[in-house]
Amino acid sequence: MVISQTPYRISFFGGGTDYPAWYLKEGGAVLSTTIDKYCYISCRILPPFFNIKHRIVWSHIETVSAIGEILHPAVREGLRMLGFDDTLGLEIHHQGDLPARTGMGSSSSFAVGLIKALTALQGHIIGKHELALKAVALEQNILKDHVGSQDQVAAAYGGLNVIRFSTSGDIHVQPVTIPQARIAELESHLMLLYTGASRLASEVASRVIDNMPHKRAALQRMCQMVDQALAILNDQSDLLDFGRLLHEAWMLKRELSPGVTNATVDAIYQTAREHGAIGGKLLGAGGSGFMAFYVPPAQQPTVRQALAGYLWVPIKFESAGSNLIYYRPN
What we know:
Elements: E1 2-13, H1 20-26, E2 28-45, E3 54-57, E4 61-64, H2 73-81, E5 90-96, H3 106-121, H4 128-142, H5 150-157, E6 160-165, E7 171-175, H6 180-188, E8 190-194, H7 201-211, H8 216-234, H9 240-253, H10 263-274, E9 279-282, E10 290-294, H11 300-306, E11 311-313, E12 317-318, E13 323-327
Parallel strand pairs: 3-5
Antiparallel strand pairs: 1-2, 1-13, 2-5, 2-6, 2-12, 3-4, 6-7, 8-10, 8-11, 9-10
């Protein structure tokens, strides 16, 4: 039995510049952090006493006689990519702290956690960078999903990082090395709200990608904000500037495609701003899901009360990335 624990992430700046369609031409950068909410994947070799070959438990329960019959695309193709066949039966369970399709990078956390668990089951130690690249390859090249490359890297590495994407395709992770007190100050200003809706991120992302040639100036500015935010964190300037920059980034992101926001999201955002939020954003590609707000601690009760009809989720930063929390080979 192997159990992997893989964090979800909050992306602050640079989202959109992590799509290969953009960074292979222009380069890109993202500032993000992983949080203490996780995707859990357990895998084991299925004992040979059952009249099935594989059992996959997610929002469905699948019992199949061959890998090719598995409905979950990431599981089916992930097994194939890693060289599994039907010689041995497998049982794979997924559990998540947050709902899927809500802007928290859940599909990439799933891919990373699945690969982490399966390679361990094969008796291999996989490094963080190789893990991230394999998850990118699974989602982008095999599943053909319209996803960027930041979520897989964030989930594999963990922590508060600048992730840079070069035109050569290389990906570099730069940990944000600021005092822990400064990180704690940033953490204390963040609030996470669940709008209660989900969407297929790839559909929104597809429209954003199609619009990229017409949104070059906006994307370039969004990329520049990564280093601007890093400078704010790195000196002793007012950390409220981070929130103000987040507001500017959200205004730019809204321009990338009509599907990024909607009337409900705009109303929530406006209400939060009217009651003390400095800035914020809808997480992920857009449309619905979780929203993050930058709010001074003294104003947080007021914001929470103004949006009392929504679920607020307490969060802390985490730095471990994807790891094994249980390993007992069969």
